Amino acid sequence: MVWELQRLVDGLAERSRRSVAVDDPRLRLLAYSAHHTGVDSARKQSILQRRVPDELANYVHRHVPKGSDEPFLLPLCPEFGLTIERLCAPIRHRSTLLGFLWVLLTEPPDDRLLEWVRDAALEAGDVLFRESFIEQIARSRERELVRDLFSHDRPVREFAASELIDNDLFTGGEATVLVAAGPTSEVLQDDRRVAMELALQRTRREFPARHCLHLVRPDHGVLIVAPGGTSWPSRRLPEVGAILRRHYLAELGKHERVWVGIGALHDSLATLDNSYDQALRAVDVARFVRTLGVVVRTEDCGVYGLLAEIPRDRLRKVGLHPGLQSLLAQDDPQIRTIIATVESYLDNAGEVKATAELLSIHRASLYHRLRRFEELAGIDLRNGDDRLVVHLGLRLARLTGRR
Q: Which range has the worst mean pLDDT, 52-56, 101-105, 218-222, 383-387?
């Protein structure tokens, strides 16, 4: 495809003695000619970065005549670096927009130039459609193999792993899974599904070829990453999760809620289903334990990760200590403060000094709150079993939405 587009672009540029370029529908540069005239900052940015800001892409789409493949003049916009007149021809196959053909102008276009541009856009449409069809077949095969990586059948996983590597779709070496999901396990609505697909695609561009795969499942998105040999070593994977969230929120708005879980690294694609399960549990934990943040590694889940391995419906049936359950049911700010104090005390392994410093209170106040908790809950915090029951109960309550 690249060679055919480049030949087409160079031919039109030579005939017209003007600078020509072809972009995809999101204005990612596919081919461009030598410059027969001056260029503006928008063209320079496109060449240097192979893409333009989303704001500029949206500006172009607002001015494209709906359903038309006729060349048109794009209005100048110095704010986006559009300071030179340019002729734009939408590249379509039937009614599907496949890209844009651009010609920088030094004078108004004549009929001959318009005819050349129409012919070039038609030819470019054939080239891009063939490539799009081939890509769809390859992408469909990739989706099937990625889906099979998470099969319960080990031979199926092993076959998918070998196919991905043997067909140069993915590199060998260590890999991990990132899962992005919203606040519930309900099937994604169409707009969220599209947003998830776009977010995963854009995050993949952060990685070299063969280092990233993705899949949109009914209620979440999956990103498979091989960090070795990239600018994203494993310690920076939370940053990748943050990028994935940012792209998703850019489509739907900052009010949208989404979490990213990161599984552990595995040295074989055939065992990546374990990393996938860990990433799913990390998301599940992060939804309820807000103190962990919105991008959570499986190793950061602590005891919540262990509890999350128990099916959620069974966890909800696990009873809490009656005294603790009674306190959690009360909507009293003082009671909530006492519970939070006890949790901090237990998190600090019963260290009074460390807990008092963390809460910025006097030790006498801490002792008073602990005694008050014991009185109200009927629990002896000096007893190791009671401390364990309370600590696990507080974790369980948070994980199941009971606090």
A: 383-387
Task: State whether residue 49 is helix, strand or coil.
Answer: helix
Sign, CA dihedral 369-370-374-377, equals positive
- CB-based burial, 126-151: b 16+ in 10 Å, e otherwise: ebbbebbeeeeeeeeebeebbebbbe
- Provide the whole-model pTM: 0.59
Place of tokens 């070496």: 173
Q: Which two tokens stand for residue 180?
A: 């992005």
Per CATH, the number for 313-399 is 1.10.10.2840
Distance, in Å, from the CA atom of 282 to the CA atom of 176, rounded to the nearest integer, reads: 13
Name beta bridge partners: 176.
225
Where do you find CATH 3.30.450.40 in the chain? Answer: 2-137
Dihedrals phi, psi of 90, to nearest 5 degrees: -60, 135
Between 310 and 358, the more confident residue is 358
The CATH number of domain 173-309, selected from 3.30.70, 3.30.1120, 3.30.2350, 1.20.1510: 3.30.70
* pLDDT higher at 325 or 87: 87
Neighbour count for residue 41 (Cβ, 10 Å): 13
Judged by DSSP in three states, 176 sits in: strand
Tell the CATH superfamily of the 2-137 domain.
GAF domain (3.30.450.40)
Q: What is the 3-state secondary structure (H, E, C) of 183-198?
A: CCCCCCCHHHHHHHHH
